[in-house]
């Protein structure tokens, strides 16, 4: 009887759900089959990167350098790298749309419930900041798992954290020491952060991906701005070791908001104690 119930009611949805998920998003199937695609090949001398055959030799040289620099930045930010995402570079928009759902932005990250993840870079994605940003999403995903990230991590934190390694939108001085960034990226001219005079949105209104990305482009820009401001504020208090410490606390079972606030409180108390010393 129990076996019948399992076969009739439990097994079909268990099989149908992942299949439905993949059918709904053909881009995911393409990502999963990237190593068999005739239109792509693996990038030499750099592990885990596939490039479209349309990629020029110059684009390849630049991409190799950007991937190395971005991975190095992630290792410094997270005190190591656990993410193993496959990078897929599409220098043309039409290819990008085949691999990234929506085909918007310079890059996108696709994490699957069973742990595989893909970072797709579009025509504007051959850039250290774009790659570091997507790798940061992947690192959070690798450390906490798909379910925990979906259930526990507010979108403002996920995006805000990625913006801390994306120097188009934040200053490296929030967590890096100047000597470690001077020679970082010879191929990319550092730009000043784009956002000025932020108009903040309440964090509780930026909890879900729909909250964050659901409005028009102006809302999304303000959402990024708010996320970057908040995480930069927190990070300047807890400093770089606070990033892996937060992930470890959540992994140990602490709810996100508790772990986030506790780290901040501990650092405030330490600062007070130090400043009250004669
Ligand atoms: Zn992002």
Polypeptide structure, described:
The protein is α/β, with parallel strands linked by helices and 278 residues long. It has twelve helices and five strands. A five-stranded mixed sheet has the order 1-2-3-5-4, with helices on both faces. The radius of gyration is 20 Å and the shape is globular. The site of zinc ion has 4 residues, from helix 5 and helix 7.
Total beta strands: 5
Figure out the total of helices: 12
Ligands: zinc ion
Helix-strand string: HHEEHEHEEHHHHHHHH
What is the architecture of the domain at 37-145 at the second tier of CATH? 2-Layer Sandwich
Give the structural class: alpha/beta
Q: Give the strand order of the largest sheet, numbering strands 1, 2, ... along the chain.
A: 1-2-3-5-4
For this structure, what is the CATH class of the domain at 37-145?
Answer: Alpha Beta
Provide the gyration radius in Å: 20 Å
**What is the CA–CA distance across the termini?**
76 Å
Mean pLDDT across residues: 87
Summarize the structure.
With 278 residues, this protein is α/β, with parallel strands linked by helices.
């Amino acid at each position: 009887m129990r076996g019948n119930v399992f076969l009739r009611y439990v097994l079909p949805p268990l099989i149908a759900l992942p299949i439905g998920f993949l059918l709904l998003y053909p881009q995911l199937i393409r990502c999963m089959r990237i190593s068999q695609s005739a239109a792509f090949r693996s990038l030499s001398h750099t592990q885990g990167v596939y490039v479209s055959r349309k990629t020029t030799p110059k684009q390849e040289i630049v991409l190799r350098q950007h991937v190395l620099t971005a991975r190095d930045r992630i290792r410094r930010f997270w005190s190591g790298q656990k993410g193993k995402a496959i990078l897929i570079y599409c220098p043309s928009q039409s290819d990008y749309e085949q691999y990234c759902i929506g085909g918007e932005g310079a890059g996108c990250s696709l994490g699957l419930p069973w742990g595989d993840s893909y970072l797709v870079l579009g025509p504007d994605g051959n850039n250290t900041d774009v790659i570091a940003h997507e790798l940061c999403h992947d690192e959070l995903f690798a450390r906490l798992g798909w379910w925990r990230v979906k259930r526990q991590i507010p979108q403002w934190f996920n995006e805000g954290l990625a913006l801390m390694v994306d120097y188009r939108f934040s200053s490296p001085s929030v967590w890096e020491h100047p000597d470690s960034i001077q020679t970082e990226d010879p191929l990319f001219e550092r730009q000043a952060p784009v956002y000025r005079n932020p108009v903040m949105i309440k964090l509780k209104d930026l909890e879900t991906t729909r909250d964050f990305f659901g409005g028009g482009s102006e809302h999304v820009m303000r959402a990024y701005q708010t996320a970057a401001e908040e995480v930069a504020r927190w990070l300047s208090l807890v400093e770089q070791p606070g990033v892996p410490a937060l992930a470890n606390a959540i992994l140990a079972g602490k709810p996100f908001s508790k772990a986030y606030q506790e780290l901040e409180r501990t650092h405030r108390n330490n600062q007070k104690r130090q400043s009250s010393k004669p």
